[in-house]
User: What shape does this take?
Amino acid sequence: MPADRNADERFMRLALELAAKGGACTRPNPMVGAVVVSGGEVVGRGYHQRAGAPHAEAEAIREAGERSRGGTIYVTLEPCCHTDKRTPPCVETIIKSGIARVVYGADDPNPKVCGRGCRMLRQAGIEVESRVLLKETETLNEVYRKYMTTGRPFVTLKLAMSLDGRIATKSGESRGLSCPESLERVHRMRLESEAVLVGADTVAADDPELTVRLVENPEKRQPTRFVVDSTLRTALDRKIWDQSAAKTVLATTSRADEGKLKELDKREIEVWTIDADTEGRVDLEKLVRKMGLHEYYTLLVEGGGRVAASMLGAGLVDKISFFYAPRLIGGDGVPSCAGMKTDTLGKALSVKEITYNNIGADLLVEARIGH
Assistant: This one.
């Protein structure tokens, strides 16, 4: 059947809207949306709601029923074809339904699928059109794509700062810098992350809980809180060591305070001893790699300045989310990326796909790091 590119993109955008409803609940699976169209009319819709639930294609075909036969299915990701999972392969479901044409967005980076789903559909005599709205469909599943291709979590660096790039005053004061709307946005970011990470300086200065509190959280999901402290200088009365609301993991080195380690063991705090880098601090690259091995798919880094600089310098950050408050702190305040050394503009990190959004009184600037 002749392809109508405008129609294909219109229906794919509908599938993208459906896919986004799954959010973080689909992990470790990708977000996927599907639309069945017959005679120019949408007759079936579906999206993957959570891991273990029916896939988007199956839901859309089920809703369409017999009207699937001879129709077109639009799906944001290449249909799966492997059997080592909790749900049937979508390729088989599509073939059995009598669908005549499949239009999908991004190729599935999973080596068990990549290209195979497309080939099996064509071998069954089904017309296949791929890479429709490729950029949008790949961005939708940037977390899944990063983990599948590298085995590491997708890392977002979040910082709140003044307009002149200071995250705290000289004395370390930072509470009240962000507006309430920004704080709510950060709590939503935590809800969508498997892990959050801060350094010892942030724990000492702010005594944060790093839990989800300011947004609706019906499933009571909480990210694992990672504290990076190479010598375990963090006081044991900090809120982060209270695991009644969320799990805490200490990332440290062999130089950690033995007495404090024994106390944390009594409190059942998990400790990861990571090799030190050349400066004697936790090797963040090895830490992030271990997070991937433990199936952490997303990591939200919440500071402080030295951790931010180290993560950026090591090339570990995928996305930045910088909240700018309408204040000026001055040159003696704590810089946002303390210790980050760039002696020429040619060596400065570049960013791309920049967006600007007003969040209450603040300005949120987000971008991808140009690796």
In short: The chain has two domains: 5-142, 151-369. DSSP finds eleven helices and 16 strands in the chain. The longest strand covers residues 154-162.
